[in-house]
Design goal:
This protein is of the alpha+beta class. It is built from 6 helices and 6 strands. It has 2 domains: about 55 residues, no CATH class; about 90 residues, no CATH class. Strand 5 and strand 6 form a beta hairpin. The radius of gyration is 18 Å and the shape is elongated.
Length: about 160
């Protein structure tokens, strides 16, 4: 569970309770949850998790980021956190960006995945020597973030 701070007005609290979506539900004015993510984000602040997902990212611990990378690399799942992360990269940047790097490299090491780069080409190989393949256009948001970390150009 990821928890964020409080400090909302009565009007914002009422709006939060009145405008719940199918991806978010509120138990009370101070406790709202997102359903679709790997983690449960509790919004105790003026912005709900849906309105400000970057704030949710800032609440993740290193181990939680590693779990997100593991879901992508092992199970080929793409949690919404990667979309939030990609969007933040395209805008102002990401708080604790270095932690996303560390989480990726720790996960690669734990899974025995090797990153090989030679002759202008790169490969990611799993522990059995099987190559990972990614799409050229990086439509998958986790792939996009992975490439930004491995090749940090134009950031």
């Amino acid at each position: 569970m990821v928890v964020r701070g409080s400090g909302i007005s009565c009007g914002v609290a009422k709006e939060r309770m009145d405008n719940q979506s199918e991806n978010q539900y509120c138990l009370d004015w101070f406790m709202c949850f997102r359903k679709e993510s790997k983690y449960c984000y509790v919004s105790l602040d003026t912005d709900s998790a849906q309105e400000n997902p970057v704030a949710c990212l800032s609440g993740l611990q290193l181990q939680q980021k590693e779990t997100l990378w593991r879901l992508f690399l092992e199970k080929h799942l793409v949690p919404p956190e990667f979309e939030w992360l990609r969007d933040a990269l395209l805008q102002d940047g990401v708080q604790n960006w270095i932690e996303w790097h560390l989480a990726l490299y720790r996960t690669l090491e734990q899974l025995g995945i090797r990153f090989l780069c030679s002759g202008g080409q790169f490969e990611l190989m799993d522990s059995a020597g099987k190559r990972f393949y990614f799409s050229v256009d990086h439509t998958n948001t986790a792939e996009h973030v992975l490439m930004k970390i491995l090749f940090p150009l134009n950031q």
